[in-house]
TrEMBL record:
Keywords: Membrane, Sulfate transport, Transmembrane, Transmembrane helix, Transport. Gene3D superfamilies: MetI-like. InterPro entries: CysW_permease, MetI-like, MetI-like_sf, Sulph_transpt2. The complex is composed of two ATP-binding proteins (CysA), two transmembrane proteins (CysT and CysW) and a solute-binding protein (CysP). This is Sulfate transport system permease protein CysW. It comes from Palleronia marisminoris. Residues 50-257 form the ABC transmembrane type-1 domain. It comes from the Bacteria. NCBIfam families: 3a0106s02, permease_CysW. The gene is cysW_1. The lineage of its organism: Bacteria, Pseudomonadati, Pseudomonadota, Alphaproteobacteria, Rhodobacterales.
Length: 267
């Protein structure tokens, strides 16, 4: 009896919080027909928002991978002053509201901030353009790769790396043939999570983007804009694109779990 009640509560909660909202998005988006949905999705400003969102994710992803690998390697393999502080700093984006983070970036890198004011005479603007969107996206996504790779590095590979070093392997050979095979799935999973977070980020981007139609509107911002303009069909159509990108993330996660069950079980 207790088991049945727990399962029923879990299913009910998932249905109310996840299934019904997602179903409502697709139902409302296609309520007027496929042609209307296609017209809304291919509207120039929405296409520009989709393009900007994907471009941001493509820029953020490799930076996250490099930073995550370097940070996880340093923390797992070395003991140095400030190591714990570095761990805390990496977790900061999870503790700070994205809107607050966006405001901090605006105060520092904006035209009236210390960095922005110093760059302004050279014609360099960091806010209200792609650079600002990328900066805040990096901030909110930087912990994901580190959080996935660090536990794996902490428990595997160190003895093998020492053995390879003893046998005369250089640093690159050790990383390529010893370390990387151990962290491949963790790295891929962290990259997927970071990409999904970058695609769906709203709060921080809304502060630093400037909300210029057709130029600095990412897909989440475009959805809000369309809804506030009472274009509900366009808003829900754009929302389906964002939902499909999220579902793609789940599919990739499932593929990882299938080919590497241990990674899926611990994620």
């Amino acid at each position: 009896m207790r088991r049945t009640v727990l399962i029923a509560l879990a299913i009910l909660f998932a249905a109310i919080v996840i299934v019904l909202p997602v179903a409502a998005i697709f139902t409302r988006a296609f309520a007027e027909g496929l042609s209307v949905w296609a017209a809304a999705v291919t509207e120039p400003e929405t296409v520009a928002a989709i393009r900007l969102t994907i471009l941001t994710a493509l820029i953020v992803l490799p930076v996250n991978i490099v930073f995550g690998l370097c940070a996880a390697w340093a923390i797992a393999r070395y003991r140095f002053p400030g190591r714990r502080a570095l761990l805390v700093l990496i977790e900061v984006p999870f503790a700070i509201s994205p809107i607050v983070a966006g405001l901090c970036f605006l105060l520092i890198y904006g035209a009236y901030g210390p960095v922005g004011a110093a760059l302004q005479p050279y014609g360099i603007q960091l806010m209200f353009n792609l650079i600002g969107i990328v900066l805040v996206s990096l901030f909110v996504t930087c912990p994901f790769v580190v959080r996935e790779v660090l536990p794996v590095l902490s428990v595997t590979g160190e003895d093998e790396e020492r053995a390879a070093l003893t046998l005369g392997a250089n640093g690159w050979q050790i990383f390529r043939f010893v370390t990387f095979p151990n962290i491949t799935w963790a790295l891929v999973y962290g990259a997927i999570l970071a990409t999904a977070r970058a695609i769906g980020e709203f709060g921080a981007v809304s502060v630093v983007s400037g909300a210029i139609r057709g130029q600095t509107m990412t897909l989440p911002l475009q959805i809000e804009l369309l809804y506030n303009d009472y274009n509900t069909t366009g808003a829900f159509a754009a929302a389906t694109v964002l939902a499909l990108l999220a579902l793609l993330t789940l599919v990739l996660r499932g593929i990882i779990s299938y080919f590497h069950p241990a990674r899926g079980a611990t994620a």
